[in-house]
What does this fold into?
Amino acid sequence: MGTPNTKAFGTASPEAALQQMQIERRTVTPKDIEIEILYCGVCHSDLHTARNDWGGTIYPAVPGHEIVGKVTKVGAEVTKLKVGDFAAVGCLVGSCGTCDSCQHDLEQYCLNGFVGTYNGKDKHSGTQTFGGYSERIVVDEHFVLKVPANLDLAATAPLLCAGITTWSPLRHWKVGKGSKVAIVGLGGLGHMAIKLAKGLGAEVTLFSRTPGKEKDAIRLGADAVVISTDADQMSKVKGKFDLIIDTVPYVHDVNPYVATLNISGTLVLVGYLGGLEPILNTVPMILGRKAVAGSLIGGIAETQEMLDFCGEHNIVSDIEIINMQDINEAYERMLKSDVRYRFVIDMASLKQ
Ligand code: NAP
Ligand code: ZN
It folds into this structure.
């Protein structure tokens, strides 16, 4: 693990609670920016990684990829930001920079493998990367974002993952005025998807299995709410949507949602990773030129575009600020869909 020089919060095994630990941050190289982390959002992917839901977690693991903070040091060749500026880091801290994906600002699809902000392989040290549940981070300037000055800093943090993950499919499938968009699941990603789709001018419907979230969904910008467990409500939106963004983290039946796509509509899975159960029925897809697709976060240029759009439209996340020491309880609440609508850690609590 190198020479520990930074306070962090992480876990030693899938079953263990997160606790305070020391990690190593590399010395700032000519292209690096060092950021004092002020706030870090809590993504469901943090929980999946801490508990090894996807396999492949290297321990100890320090999650956190919705990072905002202040620049404390810059390398000699850095031009993007200077000491004292606010800065943000999302899910990516490296990629090859030369493959076809990287050349097209799609670092998240780097053909040689992107470097994740946590549980990735640091290009400089070859050791694993540690995320934002920590005092500071050192990142190549290419992967550091500028924060619009008018936005609340803590509420901006979730834009770095929940925001860009929903923005990227909205842009790729060209959502705009007149588009009919539906979002499945009102959590961190879902609530940002509503705000961003609405900001782009779409008509937005929320699919939720949790009665009681309707009022919030409308307040966040949804035009309608459909309770997905109510067959009657589901049949009323048959054939309606151009694009559905499905944020559900666990295996679930997507066939009822495909039925609500318009001809040539697309359902984009951004939540669940793995085989679908029950199996996907291709009949309605073939008869209606419908597609089921996936999408991974977004590239750096697209992330900056999303942040700038949020600055112009005053869009931030609805957050509940927690102390670092409350993270284990926050994970339990996230599993019960009891998040309104993103936990953000006040990193000052780590200094206590
Ligand atoms: P979250 O805040 O926990 O929200 C997920 C929402 O899905 C819940 O609020 C709930 O909404 C619904 N839901 C939860 N469990 C469900 C179940 N068993 N069946 C049906 N609906 C369920 O999570 P998040 O942070 O938004 O993340 C969502 C997923 O996206 C996670 O799996 C995460 O790892 C993944 N992710 C993917 C990317 C990517 O690049 N593709 C990026 C970030 C995160 P209702 O109560 O409204 O039903
Ligand atoms: Zn995330």
Q: What stands out?
A: The first helix runs from residue 44 to 50. The chain has a mean pLDDT of 97.
